[in-house]
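2024-03-11 09:14:02 DEBUG pipeline.ingest accepted 1 chain
2024-03-11 09:14:02 DEBUG pipeline.ingest length=202
2024-03-11 09:14:03 DEBUG pipeline.predict start
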Amino acid sequence: MALKNKGLLIVFSGPSGSGKDTVLGELKKRDINMKQSVSVTTRDIRDGEVDGVDYYFTDVQTFEKNIEEGYFLEYVKYGSNYYGTPKKRIEELIDGGSNVVLKIEVEGAGNVRRVFPDAVSVFIIPPSMEELEKRLKGRGTETEESFRNRLDIAKEELKRACEYDYIVVNDSVSACADRVCAVIEAETFKYTRMKALVDNMK
């Protein structure tokens, strides 16, 4: 009977405007072994969002109780709102052989890597800063102040790209998704992950 490898935890980050959600949407359309983790937040639900799909929405009191109980793999607080990653569900999926992708900001990504050092970290970047500015302006939802703030945050996040295992350029959604798939495949067949299968054949 063949041994079954555990799945990968894939940490997926990038500055606003890099196209993380669009690339993840493309990956979901493909027949690959990948599930996306759903985070918990205390912020209000927005129009078009679905509880349990986009986020699990909860209140501050429940979230802080969950912190005390060790419910989260990692959590951060932005302003007055908490964001956290449920630990048990991710562990269940990985133990069952599924690859789990966790879309998360750079601060939270650092926390995950400390707790889960085997995680594979991928940082998505646009082909140039000019393209990033174009994408942010193209949304048509940003004030000039908001645009400048997002741009400043993006520049700070890019400074931390060196903390990631892989840097993937999103110059084309399809090509970027191809590159992420190549990363996942390469990591799946690393010797450290295949060792148990090799040893079982000796």
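2024-03-11 09:14:41 DEBUG pipeline.report The beta strands are 9-13, 34-36, 40-41, 56-57, 72-78, 81-86, 99-103, 120-125, 166-169.
2024-03-11 09:14:41 DEBUG pipeline.predict end
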